[in-house]
Fold these 2 entries.
Entry 1:
Amino acid sequence: MKELFILAVVTVFTLATYYLVEPFAHSKMHKHVESEKFAYADLPALTKKGDANRGKDLVMGAGACTGCHAIKVAGLAAPMDPVATAQSYGVNTPDLSNAGVVYDAKFLAALIKNPAHALKVEHKYDAASGKVHPMAQFGGAGGDLDQEVADMVAYLQSIAVKQDKLTPKMAFETACGRCHAMKYENWTQIGDKPSFKMKKDELAFDIQVIDYQDALTKYMGKLPPDLSMYIRSRGEHYISTFVENPQHLIEGTAMPRVGVTAETAEKVIEHLADAGDTKRVERDEVGKKVMVFIVIFALFAYLWKRSIWKDLH
Amino acid sequence: MAHFTKATSVHDWINQRLGIDTVRRVMATEYWIPKNINFLWAMGMVLAITFALLLVSGIFLLMYYQPNVNTAFDSVNYTIMREVDFGWLWRHVHGVAASVVFLVIYIHMFTGIYYGSYKNGREMIWISGMLLFVTFSAEAFSGYMLPWGQMSYWAGMVITNLFSLGGLHADGIVEWIRGDYVPAQAFLDRFFMLHVLLLPLAIMGVIGLHFGALRIPHVNNQDGEELDFEKEAAKYKAGDKKGSKVIAFANDFMSKDLFVVGIFLIFFFYLVFFHYDFAMDPVNFDPADGLKTPAHIYPEWYFLWSYEILRPFSTNIGLMAFGFAQVIFFLLPFLDRSPNAIPANRRGLFSLWFWAMLVDMIVLTAMGKLPPEGIFSTIGLVAALVFIGLWIALPFITKSEKKA
């Protein structure tokens, strides 16, 4: 039938244009990076079985983690407030309460031994620059270094919440929230912004945020972006592969490899979707109903057309 | 003064005062359309419906949008997308319709070119249609500024820069258009005004002109057959609907239109709910930042072909080629020297010209988006030259065309 042939011609040219302008052009414009499934293949596997009790002593021990890190679940508060910490180190030191579940075990072990290497920021801290990463390398407490590190990782895993209790928001805050604000979820780098009764109190809080951001900007070279709309501006695949290894997509970026597990990465992305694509479930539901309605409409329109045109032909 | 009698019904009361029976007859039941048409003749109705969707969704968006450089981005992405019930739906309908309307415009245009519906008295239909294309383009561009994302800002920067006219360095004109040295508050305010007031008014006016232009020459048909509309209409009114070569606008033509609209809306709403990314560039979900140029700046897909005519050349020549591309379609009825108003496939060389032009514009569109490197810039340059060459060749190949 002639009309169907014409429709086929229109469709072919439309689809050809679409293909060239969208999938094809974007494949040429943006580097495609395959996910490595958060395997961190470049880092050595853990060979020793850790002991959480020994790990606890090491983590709490003199010169180890708690000099800088809070562990709220173990009753240890941060030595300094976030702003003062950022002004000393460049960024707030993370609370280690959930580090054992958020971060990959191999990554944690490598991080304790050599932070700049595990974080893939050695280009910032090479010998020529004379700079060293603010987190000190753990040189061992006198025993077998690999065993001690495995013990510390085991301890961190033992105190962390279980994977199914880790909410998307917690995953985001632990993994991303000390550098990235998320305005649409009311998140600042120093925590949720409370609602204030007095303007003066709000301004005081804002000044703290600005002080923190100034220190962070100095540390990172520029202020890390607000992530409110990243699910729409970057998309799931980009975010996932970028988090996995930022250097793959932006060579030389100051953003460290975060070292999260695949499960945590999924939760982080869910939180980003909760901020920037809140109506996705409603959209799918309404979409299906509208499609049904419009198909029925087209069907009736066809019947009406046929009833009228039978007198014309 | 006309003589009024006591009304026998509400209909009669209104009819005596507004003549609605006459309006209905003139506009619908005795507005004659050729019978020998295909679904491409329904594109006008599809465009009218899409414009209505744009207008209605735009009115809802306008209730929450804030034309301020500090709040515009959040009023769209936070207030409309998160806070307002179904705000996301209005935005996606508006964004997708803005893109799809151009697809239909292009189909409508190439239908006109293929069937020769721009000559032998139909010149004003074509010219008013091209005016609509230009006003829709301005409407699309001004609307693209409003979310104040990265692409809004940088597309605004690049396009307004064109008005410095290259080697003439008319920077004063650029500043006059922007109201500032760079796109800023004055720029956003005036494009907001253009988008929600002046251009929609102009579009509605030109739509009226476009419809009016159809009235005297009548709609063309699939075979370019010249119909005696009065004779055929008389046949139709005498009851010989089967034998008549014309049909009434309503309900005959309308019932077919509505069916095509139904099919179109299935496609449209599929895009709105399940495949909207092509119409809402990811880069524009980053807030405008005058200190951070995006890696790739490109217009929406419907401007790519003319962008690619600008790009492969040096500044001045590029601008001239671009200017050429903007006006040349207006001149089509006069550049086509053949008296034949019949489908392209019966017009010899013109048939080749038609398909070459269509393919060339698709190639230009693709190259306009791809980064201008290596083979792509060569293909883009060749396609731009072919575009110009085809227009120069048009009068010659149509002049030698035999009278059908």
Entry 2:
Amino acid sequence: MQLEEKKKKEIEFLEKVFRAGSSTLSNISPIADKQKKAVERISELGFPNRKIEDWKYYDFSPILDNFLSFDTCKITQIEKESLKDFLFPECEKNLLVTVNGHFSEKLSNFSFSKEDISILNFNDPEQLKSYQGLDDLVEKYFAEGIENESNFFKACNTALLSNAFLLKVKEGVQLKETLQILHISNEHCFNQTRSLIHLGANSKINIIVTYVGLAEIPFVNNAVIETVLEEGSELVLDKIQDDTQKGILLYDLKAKLLKNSRFEYSSLNLKANSSRDKISVDIDEEGAHADINGLYILNGERKAHNVITVNHNVGNSTSSQLFKGILSDKARAEFNGAINVARDANGTDAEQMNRHLVLSDEAHVDSRPQLNILADDVKCAHGSTIGDLEEDEIFYLLSRGIKKDDALAMLTLSFCDEVIQKVKIESARQHIKNMALENLDTQMHKANIVHNLR
Amino acid sequence: MSEQIIDIKELKADIVDGDQILKGLNLKINAGEIHAIMGPNGSGKSTLSKILSGHPAYEITDGAIDFQGKDLVEMEADERANSGLFMAFQYPLEIAGVNNLEFLRMAYNSKQKYLGLEEADPLDFDDLIEEKLSLLNMKSDFLDRNLNEGFSGGEKKKNEILQMLVLNPKLVVLDEIDSGLDVDALRAVAAGINAYKSEGNAVLMITHYQRLLDYVKPDFVHILSGGKIVKSGDSSLALEVEKEGYDLLAA
Amino acid sequence: MQNLPQTEEKTSTDMFASLSSQEYKYGFSTDIETDSFPKGLSEEVIRKISAIKEEPEFMLEFRLKSYEAFKNMVDPDWAKLNIPAIDYQDIIYYSAPKAKPTKESLDEVDPEILKTYEKLGIPIEEQKRLEGIAVDAIFDSVSVANTHKKALAEIGIIFCSISEAIKEHPELVKKYIGSVVPHTDNFFSALNGAVFSDGTFVYIPPNTKCPLELSTNFRINTKGSGQFERTLIVCDDESYVSYLEGCTAPAFDENQLHAAVVELVAKEKSEIKYSTVQNWYAGDENGVGGIYNFVTKRAKCEGRDSKVSWTQVETGSAITWKYPSCILQGDNSIGEFYSVALTNNMQQADTGTKMIHIGKNTKSTIISKGISAGKSSNSYRGLVKVTPNAKGARNYTQCDSMLIGSTNAANTFPYIEVDGKSAKVEHEASTSKISEEQLFYLQQRGINVEDAIGLIISGFCKDVFKELPGEFAAEANQLMSLQLENSVG
């Protein structure tokens, strides 16, 4: 029986989690406490299924069928040279690298002043223990709300992590340079990566996080980012998913915005067999703004899922979401985005836009924009469109003497451009455009267009 | 002596839970008169128009307003309107889905009912409105649109004047009616005001600039500063303001 | 058979609430004798219903297989509704006025029933004289009067109660019943399939434009009874019909279940327009009493170039669970859904539509306006599905919510599932409130607060109201104002 087979695999997966979880328990007690709670939560939740609204359109079989190893996630030798496609010159001096979930000191660089920003490694207990205020930070913000965590895989990450970065930007510090965090996967395993980013009051930092696959083998990169923005702080976070064709990305981002803080986020899903982004933004104090953007360009049989929740827990706050997807071949995309406005959160202004460009007959889109509103003095709007390129626009370009392939490529790239422009680093934007073109229909005259649009 | 329209005595008013804006304002307007109130930004000009028309965001803390023998302070906004006080808004609101013509008829009939007069049926009302439209040089398709929805700045202001003509009030308060108007629209608006004006009613214009006063000549000009009228005179005062600025006059 | 005690006549002036209060205008029950079954559901009850109605064998079979399906199902729990557990054994499944229903002449209808309809503001006597509307009236479970029947029959239109159709036109009923909403479809439709007592049947023959608006008024009267009507409308090739449905119920302090099924079949180049003004008793301001309105309405645009248009104004019921849908099977077929749902006090509504695009170049339009006041909860839930064969499919959806006060909830849950590049699907949603500035502007023009609110609300709902036949639009407007009185401070 197929159903029984699936059940068996789910149980096996859970067993692996419990077995691995017992060996990854941290010897820092506040962390270990959270890990224990995570294990409890995993057994409460059980392996997820499609009856749960958030997983309604997700296919679990690649995760279950690949018999991933949970304990061979080890650091492998990688030459910096092989990473050059994924490194951005702007971030050369400030680069953190993990390989299969382990920190690689050799590949990392760090030039920020320790006075401005503390970067701690969870698998360096000496460094951790000597850091003042660690307990408080971990208790408050690391795996916050793990007791009620709805994402099974985030609970797994908490239980299984061997390393995590703890970044703490000091109060009032405005960093000009961009920090890159690069997570590499090249083993057939279920690896965990994680960062907790804490911005002190009135501080500012730009971070670019990239997930890169270096081997054409199946792996699951189970990634978690948690971030807290204290009063008046500003975080620009760009995430680029550059995994290989067999890679699976499970990603969970949680942002907590305090008074007058500002969060700008862009997510670019460029490769991978499938990616699932779970994004939760909590606006907990007035005056905060969240700007959440995403682009996914899918070909072949690739899939992208975006499950986004923006919670306006207080009023006088604003948010905007813009997610765009381009699908060709047999690609599938899911957009599931909710705006929740709490009781009495008056003065909320929230908008959400989701657009899909569908370029083939066999591609499939599921879009679920949602509004849940409990306050009356609010402005909320969402929109969703699904369709091919506009005939009129193509015709306009043709009538100006532009070749059809070029016209198609131009219009397609211009569709993406709105999101690409949100990325702050020039070389990253260029990289994204190149990847976008690679993914788009091969008939397009790449060179020509790339030249013109650069 | 001509009939008294409004008598404002020692009027003091606040933004609800906020600062005091009017600090003892006196103004008397008789039938047949056109008054202009000028003043720098923040002097309380717009507050005055909102208080007269009964906006809920403001409260009167002291003083009295006698409107044709009635105590205006005690009246709701719709009662004030039906008694003959009309305010032309600086920023007329857009209301989706509400047909302009239907709205006009509803407002007209509210007043008829209030006065114990017969309500107009749609046909009679059409005749009434056609006449007013031509006066303002407006096309009748204007009436088929939704109330101020998608109107240009000039169209909105013309619509305010059209409403004024239809409701035929005793006192018109024009709040910065000239803002955002080009010359042609300003002329049409002025023509509407001049057509309305008679020995039996009165106009109170609130404006920052002399421009409107070239088209509608006031009998009295008052300078409002710091929540009080600091100087009054005839139309030459407006020209003085244009030349000297407010600072000098208010000093 | 057993007679239940009669319900108390409540038609006193204080019950018949004046326009100035918020109470339910239609909250009176009529003092007529009824034949009712004891409470409870069993195969025996179903056989009995079928026997009383002298149904042919196929109908009994349909009922029994529906009951089988029902027994194996559970109440749906996915909607954003808080539904108290319902004891399905505590419901009277059959209740009929005792005076023998007559369908030939209104003179024979129990005068008490006619009085009820007068109170509803839709007197049949009046209606009969009115050109343009033919009325079927469902009282509790049985169709009691049907006007204009003969005139319609002359041009081949069948407009009668479904019980009558089962006997007189079994071949048509057998062919189409369950063809759009199968007996296994959902919990409530399966229950309906088992116990439905009456409803309306309409058949429009080919090349016929029905000259009258057809109309049914549904009323639940007996305390503790459920109403399970079943409506089936078949519009043959190149024909047209417009059908109106009105719903009211008396004010009882216990909840009553209404689980109707409506099936529409549109053949080639035909058009069905189905309008509903639903004003079932909503319960009082504390949420006591009121109708549970769990209705399955679905249309199949079977023929090419066919069109079905649903228009609904939902102001009543304690809980509404309802998704009038279109299966767009024929090429170039069109589905439309225009909805206004207003909730006040403790009311809950989870309503919307499903547009399933199967045929080529099929089009759908969804316009939904939700207004929530008091402590109510109002959700739009809709599915737009474009299957791989539906080349050139188009959908446009607009969902707007208006919140009045800060103790209610407005939710929007669209599901959009699209295969292939040739489809074009657009969805927009927004929320708004009645702003103080808008009210002030209207007040400054001499319009009082109540009228100003009414004006803004009807402006908000305009795109839906304009789809309703003339007098229903006026009625809808009035209902809205009535429901909302004293809601805006």
